[in-house]
Amino acid sequence: MHTTILTLHKQGVSQRKIAQMMSVNRWTVKRVIGQYNEDGTECPRPYKRTSYNEAWHEAIVKLLENNLSIVRVFEELCLQGFKGSYSALSRHIRKNNIKTDTCIRFHTKPGEEAQVDFGSIGKRHDMEGKLRKAYIFNMKLSYSRVDYYEVVFDQKVKTWLGCHINAFASFGGVVKSIKLDNLASAITKAGFYESVYQKEYKRFADHYGFLLSPCRPGKPQEKGKVESGIKYVKNNFFAGRNFTSHKDMNRQLQQWLTKANDRIHGTTKAKPNELFSKEAACLLPLPTTQFDLSSCHLRIVARDCHISLDNNYYSVPAKYVAKEVEVRLDAKLVSIYAGDNLVAIHQRAIGQGVFTTNNSHYAENKRQCPGFAEYDSKCAEQMNKIGNNCSVMLRRFQTEQSKQWQRAARGIISLRKLYSDQDIDKACLRALHYGVISYGKVKKILDNHCYDLPLNEGGEYANPAW
Description:
Blueprint lengths: L1 H9 L4 H8 L3 H14 L17 H9 L4 H10 L6 H10 L17 E13 L5 E11 L5 E6 L4 H15 L5 E4 L6 E3 L6 E2 L1 H10 L2 E4 L9 H15 L7 H15 L11 H8 L16 E5 L5 E4 L2 E4 L8 E6 L3 E6 L2 E7 L7 E2 L16 H14 L1 H13 L4 H10 L6 H13 L5 H9 L19
């Protein structure tokens, strides 16, 4: 309509005639022509209706920043004289996309910070060609936005540290601090005011000279740069690509990463590689000595009082069962610590599946069974108390029944409930004389009261060298 009115006006048609031809009010024709004559505008001016809520916009934002619900915001505004409706207020908040969880954008200097995280990328082929659940590790320099990516198949501490080592080597230096989430590989206990660091990661940070800066619990936006980096690699590299092998995936990832670090970044409006040329000079130097990933491990003590390490097993005192201990290795020894206290030390086992056990590590009540020194010595002591012949019988048991001599010895000791030590010793003498090394025969001799009968000459026990 607006364009038609102006076209007819330019052709010299009167305003009255235009109104009749288009069946519109003359004042409408007059307004359109007047606007054209005033500023030459041929397009209709948008009609702006002032919203009642616009006058309260600033107050609405302040209330939402205090994490108030829309209902509470409406109540507070009414106390301040707000006359609008709740539905109109809700529409205003949705229309203007007013967030209740607004956040601050952090800016960092060159070399000051990097952000790190893992992201799940589904199942991928590992180096052996097996399909396994995979993760992408990302370290992003906060100033230049240069990325380092690496595909891994677990989130263990050793893998986490290895990714850091490779990332720092790729950058040629170390940042002053690392911003990270509260994942288990780095933080053992998250806290709003103070977090408990995973010991090996803290030792690694001290070795490389950077500080740890974990996000507050429930505040992942504090490491928004690496969150965006994980999303970027998922959507722009892994989405829609096929890989024939683990090697092929890494090759394509490196090719893509070269281009990614040379693109115009959406936030900085500059190429990450160009900004990195300035940031590289601000990085801390790499340490002169290499961090030994195999030197220290964390293990949970199993209920059998052992830890597993390199497919071998080492005992730990029973009071540490189900607790985490730190295991330090060198070429010959395995040292186990609970906190700062050394609780066990073993020779490093050779081979696999080897159990290295210190029996004293078991609880005292668990050591009262055959094979433990306390049990065996107590059993031998009781046998010796019965008499000399019983002592000889004990030594014969130990020689001829080496794996279960304790059972036979305990059987003879149990005869003390029914017979005197003197009679038991005589029964042992008779059994030894005839070359019988058996608990059952000794018991039978006692039951039949044969221990006082005379012995035939030339018995096997003629030489009591036993």
